[in-house]
Amino acid sequence: MVKGAVDGLSSLNDDTPYWLRTANSTEKVENRPMVQLQNEDSLDRYIAYLKRFACYLLRVHLAQKEREALECDVDRSDEELVDNNEEFLPDIVGERGGTHETANSEQSDRMKDCCELTKFNPEQKQLLEDMLQSLVSGEDEETQVQKMSALMMSMILQSLKGLDRFDSPMIHFAAVLGIVEEENRLRRGDEYSYMLVGFMYCIRVLFVEHALPAATRGEQTRDDIDRFLELRRGYLVVGSYSPCSFLIKMLGYGKTMSMQKINQPILSYPS
Hints:
Blueprint: H1 2-7, H2 16-21, H3 40-84, H4 89-95, H5 98-107, H6 112-117, H7 122-137, H8 141-156, H9 169-177, E1 179-180, E2 185-186, H10 189-211, H11 222-235, H12 243-262
Antiparallel strand pairs: 1-2
């Protein structure tokens, strides 16, 4: 999916690769175009971040469904207990361990925080369910690619006007990406910036493939380019109230922190 979109970068019309790379909303275009990476290993690493995002979305969605089903079963079971055993209810609760057992199960639930903090809007939930069912039923690769592309675009083309930034699953994933779980710390600015660069590269190539599909590029008109520019202003630049706006600002902050680290004076002590 991503490699196909990357291959199509070379066929973009004139200034389009420059606008695709430009992160601000002004009329000053970036003087370097968005191009295919020369290093295949770098592209593979970039794609790996997007794969992690896709797996993250599906795992969280599935875990949320399981938790909802479990809560429904518990509620239904409790209702039956109340209806059938009202006079013995205190003893039954004691036998089941009260809230202690529930607390222990929550501690062992590794997906608990993700399930509670990651928010999907109705469209995203439906697309996740479609993707999950497609994987389970073993649909053909082309169909799965189309559904995954639709899912990714629903994450990219999400307006955050009036919402918390973490209402975006994409921003939530980017925050998780900045955690080194094994060392219980946040990633340094330089290593985190590299990951964000790769993630944003994939987002941009998917975006342009959505707005200006490579398969119909020879037939595209001025109206198609205008639509691309309008979508870009709405979702791909700083100040657009979108997930990409926040990620670009985070990327700039990470680069600033990296430069400060490089320019730190080295203290030496006389022997």
